[in-house]
Amino acid sequence: MKKILVVCMFDSIHSARWLSQFKDGQYEFLLFPSSPHRRLRPELKSLLQSTGPAKYRLFPGSRFFGLPFWLADKFLGNFIRGTLLRIGAKSYGPDLVHALELQNAGYVTLKAFESRAHDFKIMVTNWGSDIFWFQRFPKHREKLVKLLSLADYYSAECTRDIGLAKNLGFKGVSRPVIPNAGGFSEADLAIDLGDVQGRKKIAIKGYQGWVGRAVTALDSIALLSDQLEGFELVIYSANLKTIRHAKKLEKTTGLKFTIHPKGALTHKQVLELFRQSRVYVGLSESDGISTSLLEAMAMGAIPVQTATACCDEWFTETGVAIRNIEVQ
Questions:
Q1: 300's torsion region: left (phi>0), alpha (psi -120 to 50) or beta?
Q2: Which member of 83, 89, 92, 268 has the lowest number of beta carbons within 10 Å of its beta carbon?
């Protein structure tokens, strides 16, 4: 049985989905937290309780790596967690240490093993904006160069990001490009898509802030208000700035939005929204392949996505890749 020490976010659905891909394999996973976590994802809890072939367990004491601990370690440059990870790896004896995401898991892994001899392989998996966005900042770029030189394997969901990693000095083995969120179950893909041509909803991703650009998406839709008669405009995962802007547009344009704040819809409900939508709109200044984009495509919606999410690598005959957006 292969022993894998995974550095990951315990409260991330992406971590849980990635790990669940291997639940029927002969693997033993020891999970080390890469960020503060208020809770464990229910999907991760299920893996920990699984009686299947693969075994999952948390790093001893990791449930107490809360926000104060994390903030103190940030101040100390990941020294505490890096030391704990190094000691844990020595005790556990993994075949592979795998950092799921670079700015948290990857940097802790770098701190733990950069100047220490080790007899296991190191793998790093690029999530979203890990290189595409952060390489432009000198301090991050320096860390990325060191991390990639340490890594034996590199995984990404964009061919673009494999090229970027090589440009930063990665010399190891690149894994095949696959979605980092674990793909889709056969049950999800077996959903009856119904009358796609007759759909009358437009789904809009509601993230605004950092790299999310929902406000720009809403402003663009407002410019087309005279062409949207009969369509229901649905914003999901909306944060406060997006909600306020949508309310403002309702007053000035006459448009009406159905708004679901962040966390209000379950994953199943989001998939159902996509199944009812003619168009999906997601804008951001940076991303990997957006999971929402792939889910919307799988549910039959026409995707409109900024090309910063390398969406054009996944589009075939249908899809609109936006290459320039006005930053709000």
A1: left
A2: 268
